[in-house]
Amino acid sequence: MIGELPQGQFGAEELRQVGVTDDAVAQIAxxxxxxxxxxxxxxQDDPNSPYQVVATWNDNxxxxxxxxxxxxxxxxxxxxxxxxxxxxxARTTTKHPESRVVESPSAIRYRTPxxxxxxxxxxxxxxxxxxKTVRVIANPIRxxxxxxxGVITAYCEGVTWCPNWVKNAVNA
Length: 172
What we know:
This protein is an alpha+beta fold. The strands form two sheets. The chain has a four-stranded antiparallel sheet with strand order 3-4-5-6. Strands 1-2 form a two-stranded antiparallel sheet. A hairpin with a 6-residue loop joins β4 and β5. α4 packs across α5.
């Protein structure tokens, strides 16, 4: 949120004093996370807003997903900065998963193995030399902007930082 907020605890009503619309205050009071209408147009146009949509697509079953800017704990910033993956990697994993499990109404887990293949000169003999499984956790619940909350995280199982070969392989 842009602007100064009251210090310590404060009520949703006090948000009006920093430019939050009446509609957004009502949503906050009901426990709904407002997105585009949270503050004035300056907030809506801010590409660094955690709820700013970076990309949208449908998974392998046609369910709408999104990648949002996020923060250090979810979304594109976490996927990119903590796990060395991209929006394209998350999209590929959700479109072509080896497995897709609905863990709860707010969490779908996708898993896709990615293989590093080395070939002899001329490509006569090739072999898989390493496999990493990419996991994506996505929240399909739509927020007030009509888009899914989307990708919470995407990472290589067993490591924090995915090798570049994984990112490059699933960026298609």
